[in-house]
Amino acid sequence: MSTLPVVFSAFQTRKMDLLSNKWIINLIFCLFFIGVSCNSVENKIYVHLNYTIPCVRLLNATHQIGCQSSLSGDVGVLHVLESEANLDWVLKTGPNPPYMVILDSTLFTRSIMMKLKTGSSRVAGVVVVAPSSNPAEGFSPHTTCPNENSGVYSESYDPALAHCNVTVWNPLGNGLSYEEYDFPMFSLKDDNDTQAIKQCYYNHNHVVNGSSPQYPLCAMQLYSHMSAVTDTATCMRRNGINFSLSPEAVCDPLGDFNVLASTRPLNYTDKGHKTGESVVIAAARLDSRSFFFDIAPGAESAASGFVTLLAAAHALRNATQEAQPNRTILYAFFQGETFDYIGSSRLVYDMENKQFPLDLDNVHSVVEIGQVGLHGESKLWVHTDPVSRRNSSVNEEVEKLIRNLNSSALNLNFSLQEPSFSQPLPPSSFQRFLRARPIPGVVIQNHNSAFTNKYYESMYDNAEYLNMSYPPNLTPEEQLEYITDAAKALTEAATIVARALYTQAGGSDPIQLQNINVDSQMVTQMLYGFLVKSNNSWFQQMVPSDFAIHLRERPTNFYVGVTQQHSEPTLLVQYLLANLTGTTVNITQDNCQNQREGEDDKESKHIYSYMWVQGAAPPNSTERVAFCVRSTVRLSKALSPAFDLEEYTSKDYSTWTESRWKSIKGRIFLVASHELEMLTLGVGVAVLIASLMLTYIISSKADILFSSGREPTAATY
């Protein structure tokens, strides 16, 4: 038999394989083209918002606050709110609800927000356009009585002073940050994207002569779904339920780390009381907040105080190293104080439970620096607790402390005054120490009774409000070196604090006392780094190389965050405090990073911390000269004891948690009328049915339609 049919058959098979391969390649190409086309179509349909800062959900022992969207995001027709009278269109008369309300910051008031909250069935979300300058009338979304349930004044500690009965500390507080909203809320910059959104509204949605806008309409979708609900006890219980092999938490406790340093080294492996040790605590808070997540500039509420304390600590370095005073000064920078004093209550708890190298018996007195931005004034107020001063020994020490402060202000352009003796302490970390026992102490502030801060815990508590203004045409490096009016004022305040701390600690050398002066150049550099941008040449010298990449071209966010991560201000203050109070040691990078001064050194790490910083580059060189800094700086846990004790409904400790979320984003697009959408859906369904019927008919007649005919009989030769 001839082999020709076999060869012909093999040739056909080979040809079919080649055709199959081509079809596969073509199919892959088509699928890729379709995927690219889909992305291209999506980009043509949607305009994604680049800068979106959400309001997020927070929870405590009793309730939840903040905002959230549905799981798939909330969609609404855009409406630019022009005045409060224009609310009727959103809440009653507008024919195309729900609405996504765009409003300028001047309309972000309690009156308007409560009306939108009440009519939330017609409100899909709210977008607040952040202004380029601060509102002159002031704005504070915090309460009028900050931390009123977690301070010292209560039913058991002079109830007449509780709940701001005597003094309303934050009279401009409207409480918006502590409300719950059933719709998402975002903040947008007043930039090109925002102008494009408004233009989309005016092109498609704007009402002309009372007539309803015609389709298509401009709409927005906001995604900010929050996982946690109800309260902290509920979300922490859900965290412990394992629904799968990889369970996901729904919320996290607020917290971070306190930053501590002392003028004498403390052995952190030896906990509890130290016989013969007497400590003066110099304290300031590190955190702030605003209505929107990730915008917490905290210029006056936080930065003015801790920058003053950092500068004072630096001014005291030489005086305390050359001749140690009788008492140790413990610098304490507390995190989470905005949320019921997380950091200070944790330190007090650790001292009471022998989890810290000192206990409360070792505490001689407390000096706290609060809001000390002066805004052209030259007066500071020294606040004390009238209840503990009823104890004669406490009162005697407080009076000595006030005399030390007044004597430290001599020959400076400042005066110190005392409020009425019966006035309670303003919100302050010192209150948590007084809850444990009567301790002499003062809180230094820039106000007598009510806060002078018009923007307490808001996005406007920024460099502009602290009067950090620069001459025009300065380069960033020149701005870093320029001594602002704010820096000059805080330099004077820091000098008073430093000298008073030296005297309070038992320092008696008059020459040393007069030599304690704060460097105004350093103060202005710190203010620039925290309130303008942390990515500057001075900060870069102070930090390790692996952290330098995290320095930013914007102001620091002072929101405390959650316990799983160190916040930027905590790390920056840690590095600055080490450089400003520590000393340079000549050891290798390996020994420095391993917390030792030599291969056999196993003790130094218990009393000192070592940090390898990248340093500055010499003139005419691009390579930095790194070095090791030895200091007493330590990080101490700033997590509320309620979470260690699993007391999620505690009335004694902070119970604040932050909900987790999957995605935060927003986009705008044009939406067709309901009739057109239904018509499109109907046509689509008809095409689908027709396609299915055609496919069925072709499939049932396939043997006829695709028959290749009988193959010819193979010839034989």
Write the layout of secondary structure elements.
Blueprint: H1 4-45, E1 47-48, E2 53-54, E3 58-59, E4 64-65, E5 74-81, H2 87-93, E6 99-104, H3 110-118, E7 123-130, E8 185-189, H4 192-204, E9 217-223, H5 232-239, E10 251-253, E11 255-262, E12 279-285, H6 299-322, E13 328-334, H7 342-352, E14 363-369, E15 379-383, H8 392-408, E16 415-417, H9 430-436, E17 441-445, H10 476-481, H11 485-504, H12 510-514, H13 520-531, H14 537-542, H15 545-548, H16 568-581, E18 583-585, H17 589-593, E19 609-613, E20 627-631, E21 634-639, H18 641-644, E22 657-659, E23 665-671, H19 674-700, H20 702-705
Parallel strand pairs: 5-6, 6-7, 7-8, 12-13, 12-14, 14-17, 15-16
Antiparallel strand pairs: 1-23, 2-8, 3-4, 3-22, 5-9, 9-23, 10-22, 11-13, 11-21, 15-17, 18-20, 19-20
Helix pairs in contact: 6-11, 6-13, 6-16, 8-11, 11-13
Task: Kindly describe this structure.
The chain is of the alpha/beta class and 717 residues long. It has 3 domains: 42-139 and 174-227 and 664-675, Glucose Oxidase, domain 1; 255-582 and 632-639, 3-Layer(aba) Sandwich (Aminopeptidase); 584-629, no CATH class. It has 20 helices and 23 strands. The strands form 4 sheets. The protein has an 8-stranded mixed beta sheet with strand order 1-23-9-5-6-7-8-2, with helices on both faces. Helix 2 (87-93) links the parallel strand 5 (74-81) and strand 6 (99-104). It is globular, with a radius of gyration of 33 Å.
